[in-house]
Amino acid sequence: MSDEIYRDFSYDRPFVSPAQFNERTIVVDGFSKSYGMPGWRLGFAHGPQAVIQEMIKLQQYSFVCAPQPFQWAGAAALDVDMGPQLAAYRRKRDMIVEGLAGLYEVVRPSGAFYVFPKAPWGTAAQFVTRAIVKHQLLVIPGSVFSARDTHFRISYAASDQTIQRGIEALRKLATA
């Protein structure tokens, strides 16, 4: 099974689906990330016909359907060139990574719209608490995503102004 909801956010090289190498791969995708339709719960799957037929049966008896206007919007979205928006996300990623350089241990993400730096002091939970209390900066402790409490997550699905404010606060917090 391959969750490809972030497939369009592959910044540095083309996205490669495991389905290209294994015909039994079930691919799950949707419109929330690439087309800015979060909360609409509009998605799709493809894969082996026998599995998809069983998934259709399950869907038919457990969920009615996405509202018709959302379905039409999803179909229309497939014809929209998202290149400029994806380039803007790449630029935002680079802005954050460069803004934190030298103060944080961070890997330049290859996709999605999150950066996952290591907290420069204390646990990630302690660091995040100070970011929220002292700077009204909402970042998420890594312990939400794993058993380790060493890193925190930054989303760059925000305006440049918000990102710049976040970089300034994080630079201050690095030496606090």
CATH architecture of the largest domain: Alpha-Beta Complex
Can you give the helix content as a percent range?
Answer: 25-40%
CA-based gyration radius:
19 Å
Uncertain runs with pLDDT below 50, 5 residues or more? none
Q: What structural class is derived from the secondary structure elements?
A: alpha+beta
Question: For the record, what CATH class of the largest domain applies?
Answer: Alpha Beta
What is the β-strand count? 6
Q: Mean of the pLDDT scores? A: 94
Descriptive account of the structure:
The chain is of the alpha+beta class. The protein folds into two domains: 76 residues, no CATH class; 92 residues, Alpha-Beta Complex (Aspartate Aminotransferase, domain 1). The chain contains five helices and six strands. The strands form two sheets. A three-stranded mixed β-sheet has the order 1-2-3, with no helix packed on it. A three-stranded antiparallel β-sheet has the order 4-6-5, covered by helices on one side. Helix 3 runs parallel beside helix 5. The radius of gyration is 19 Å and the shape is elongated. The mean pLDDT is 94.
